[in-house]
Structure formats: C-alpha cells, structure tokens
C-alpha cells in the first residue's frame, strides 16, 4: 500500500526533511499498516521524490530492469560519480508542496508525544493521537463530534471541569490543536468576536482568528452572552462542517475556513430559559441553540477525576459528604472540583507544618488548613444551614481538634 517502504533501509541516510516526512507517513499509517488518505498522498510524493533523487533501491542493486538510456547515463559517469549515484543523495526535496508540508508539520507536532494509543480515526483530515482517555463519559463522542464538524455544547454545574475538558483534554490533547477562548458575559463585545477598532487600531476577532488559523474556538459560559451579540456566531457556526466556507469580519473582509476549525461552548445550564440558579444566564435564540443540536453533553460531577486530583480518599470523602448534605438539604450551592483542589493544597501545607512542629516558624494551626477551607466554605451559608451541615458531616468529631490529621489518607471514611 505504501511504496516509500522500499527506501526503509536507506532512509536514515537522507536529509532531515526527507527523514521527517518518512516518519510522518510511518506514524500516520501506524507503521505502514493502515490506509490513511493523507499518509497515502504524502507517500506518493515522497516516493516520487526519492525515485527521482536516488532511483529505486532495486535498480541500484544492479538487476537488469534498467532501460538503455539509463545504462548509457551510467556508463558516462566517472567511478566516483557512479559510486555517489548508488549512495543516496542528500538533496532537499522539491516535490512537496508548501501547503502539504505545513499540514504535515502540524500533524507531526501533534503526533510527536505519543503515549498509549487509545483514540483512533481513519477519517479524512483527522489526526490520530495517542492519549490515555480521560474518565469523562462522553469523551469519545465529543471528540468525534468536533472531528465531524459539529459544534459541541458542554453543560454542567460550576467547577465540574467543563473548561478544562474543552481547552486541555479535547482541544489540546485529543485533537492536538490550539484553542482560543472567548469568556462570554453580557459585556462580551462584537469586537472580540468579529474584530473592530480599538485604541491601538483594528484588532481581529477571535472567531475570525480561529476560523482562518484552524484553532478550536472555546465559547466559555456561552449562555451568559447577550443574545444579540450571540447572533454574531450564527453564520459561522452554521458552516462549521462545510469545507472552505467563508465568513466576514467587521471590515467585510472574507475569510476561508481552515479545516481544523472547531467550536466547543460551555455553560452551567442549557440556555433555553431564564435560569434561577445561575442568574447571569440569558435565554438564547433557538437559532443559536440549533447550531449545537445533537451535540449537547451534560457533564456531571465525576468522583473518579475528583479522587485522582485530591489524591487523598479521606479528604475526598469529607468533601463528598458535605456536597451530599448540601444536595440533600436542597441548599442552593455547589461544592466543586475547584474547592476540592483548594482544600487539598491547604491540607498538604498544613500537614507539612504539622510534621515540622513549628520549626519553620509557623504553627500548623496559624496558617491555611483543611479545617479553614471547610470553615470558609461553611461561612457562605446562613447560621441555621451551617448547623445542619455541620451535623451531617460530624464536624465536631472531625474538625474541632483537627482529628482528621490522624486519619489515614488512603482510607475511605
Ligand atoms: N480532568 C481533570 N484533570 C485535572 N484537573 C482538572 C480536570 N478537570 C478539571 N480540573 C481542574 O478542576 C478545576 C475546575 O475545572 P474547570 O474550571 O474546567 O470547571 P468548570 O466546569 O469550567 O467550572 P465553571 O462552571 O465554574 O466555569 C480547574 O482548576 C481545573 O484545572
Ligand atoms: Mg469554566
């Protein structure tokens, strides 16, 4: 299937650019075993280049396939020239187009840090990346959607990891693409989206940049945007799956879509109604919501991720118990991954000081502690609510004398 394999034995003698291209084809085709249209295209060009530069290794082995003209050329060569003809020449290729080269360089950068192979695509234009699949239920579906050109909307409570999922896990790790984020609010301006004049002259909008450069556009907290401003996304997001689609910036200049453009939005609630729990959310037009139709994912709290981040079962289970109590008592509050991270960092600092026994000049109870993080969280409730919550988590038993310090950290309570 891949003809460049015939140069396998001498590829290491080629110039850097050629070797790099060979490795790209090798990686894209999983060691030349999988048909991949981009790899096949590259394979064809690379083989043509090598055939031209050094001739097929078979020919050089002196079999009798050569035609007469070639024989004559050989005869005309001096011994040194003849020897050097058999040796691969170290000349850079002219056969690869600048565009294809660029595309492959991007693919190669994305592929360089390959870890265990879990995600595989054989669709056109799609990068195959190795990564350990995150413990998010719909992860594969989300990546598939973006690859297919669908816009994705992630909905979930505060601090469930939506932004991290969009920017880091999906855009960066799974797709190997850069992202550009618009933090949406009622103050988000058209300039930030489609460009406009600023104090320093014209600035290009983030939608335009993502569109032409092939970035993943992250619309963080999309439901918070003014619905009129949100209308500026409608045209582009209707064309996410159309190759070479064109949009216009504020100066009416046209921009053709880069094939890597993708869009993920996040939000706390599905924005089809005014929200009570998240006051700043706006009801959005149905036409905008339709741009994400079929690709809306609800991101729930995820104990597996939480426990991995907290690295400490005891801390996690106290936080989880507290969160359970808040939910059970139906108080309007969240206990997020962000809080857990904060509490964990406080705990590690506290325990370090506790073990040092004041030798570093700070007593363990003076600084930030796990207890102070929990107290701070509880201080945001009313007196009655606080009493109820403390009861539910056995606050006195765990916290009043810092008893949690003596609990084993790897045991669930
Ligand atoms: N899979 C993960 N691995 C490591 N850290 C994570 C992971 N998911 C989230 N985090 C961390 O948890 C915290 C909360 O995540 P994030 O900001 O993505 O939540 P969010 O759902 O976007 O919150 P909000 O609704 O408030 O915007 C961040 O500090 C983030 O770095
Ligand atoms: Mg967020």
From TrEMBL:
<dbReference type="InterPro" id="IPR027417">
    <property type="entry name" value="P-loop_NTPase"/>
</dbReference>
<feature type="region of interest" description="Disordered">
    <location>
        <begin position="53"/>
        <end position="88"/>
    </location>
</feature>
<feature type="domain" description="AAA+ ATPase">
    <location>
        <begin position="148"/>
        <end position="303"/>
    </location>
</feature>
<dbReference type="Pfam" id="PF07728">
    <property type="entry name" value="AAA_5"/>
</dbReference>
<dbReference type="InterPro" id="IPR003593">
    <property type="entry name" value="AAA+_ATPase"/>
</dbReference>
<feature type="compositionally biased region" description="Acidic residues">
    <location>
        <begin position="56"/>
        <end position="71"/>
    </location>
</feature>
<dbReference type="InterPro" id="IPR011704">
    <property type="entry name" value="ATPase_dyneun-rel_AAA"/>
</dbReference>
<dbReference type="InterPro" id="IPR050764">
    <property type="entry name" value="CbbQ/NirQ/NorQ/GpvN"/>
</dbReference>
<dbReference type="GO" id="GO:0005524">
    <property type="term" value="F:ATP binding"/>
</dbReference>
<dbReference type="GO" id="GO:0016887">
    <property type="term" value="F:ATP hydrolysis activity"/>
</dbReference>
<protein>
    <submittedName>
        <fullName>AAA domain-containing protein</fullName>
    </submittedName>
</protein>
């Amino acid at each position: 299937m891949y003809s460049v394999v015939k140069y396998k034995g001498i590829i290491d003698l080629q110039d850097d650019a050629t070797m790099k291209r060979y490795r790209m084809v090798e990686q894209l085709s999983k060691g030349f075993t999988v048909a991949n249209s981009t790899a096949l295209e590259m394979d064809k060009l690379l083989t043509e280049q090598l055939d031209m530069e050094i001739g097929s290794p078979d020919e050089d082995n002196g079999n009798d396939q050569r035609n007469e003209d070639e024989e004559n050329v050989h005869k005309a060569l001096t011994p040194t020239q003849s020897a050097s003809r058999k040796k691969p020449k170290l000349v850079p290729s002219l056969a690869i187009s600048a565009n294809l080269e660029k595309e492959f360089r991007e693919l190669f950068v994305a592929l360089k840090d390959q870890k265990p192979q879990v995600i595989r695509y054989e669709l056109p234009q799609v990068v195959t990346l190795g990564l350990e699949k995150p413990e998010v239920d719909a992860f594969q579906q989300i990546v598939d959607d973006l690859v297919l050109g669908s816009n994705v909307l992630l909905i979930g409570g505060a601090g469930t990891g939506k932004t991290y999922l969009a920017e880091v896990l999906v855009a960066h790790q799974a797709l190997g693409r850069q992202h550009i984020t618009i933090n949406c609010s009622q103050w988000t301006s058209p300039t930030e989206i489609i460009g406009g004049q600023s104090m320093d002259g014209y600035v290009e909008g983030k939608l335009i940049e993502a569109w032409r450069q092939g970035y993943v556009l992250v619309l963080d907290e999309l439901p918070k945007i003014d619905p009129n401003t949100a209308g500026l996304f409608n045209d582009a997001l209707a064309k996410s799956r159309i190759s070479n689609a064109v949009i216009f910036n504020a100066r009416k200049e046209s921009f053709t879509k880069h094939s890597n453009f993708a869009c993920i939005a996040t939000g706390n609630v599905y924005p089809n109604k005014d929200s009570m729990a998240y006051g700043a959310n706006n009801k959005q037009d149905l036409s905008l919501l339709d741009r994400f139709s079929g690709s809306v994912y609800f991101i729930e709290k995820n104990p597996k991720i939480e426990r991995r981040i907290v690295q400490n079962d005891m801390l996690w289970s106290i936080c989880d118990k507290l969160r359970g109590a808040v939910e059970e008592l139906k108080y309007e509050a969240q206990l997020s991954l962000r809080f857990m991270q904060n509490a964990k960092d406080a705990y590690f600092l506290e325990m370090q000081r506790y073990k040092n026994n004041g030798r570093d000049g700070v007593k363990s109870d003076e600084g930030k502690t796990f207890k102070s993080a929990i107290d701070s969280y509880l201080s945001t409730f009313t007196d009655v609510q606080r009493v109820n919550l403390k009861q539910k988590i056995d606050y006195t038993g765990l916290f009043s004398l810092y008893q949690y310090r003596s609990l084993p950290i790897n045991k669930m309570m």
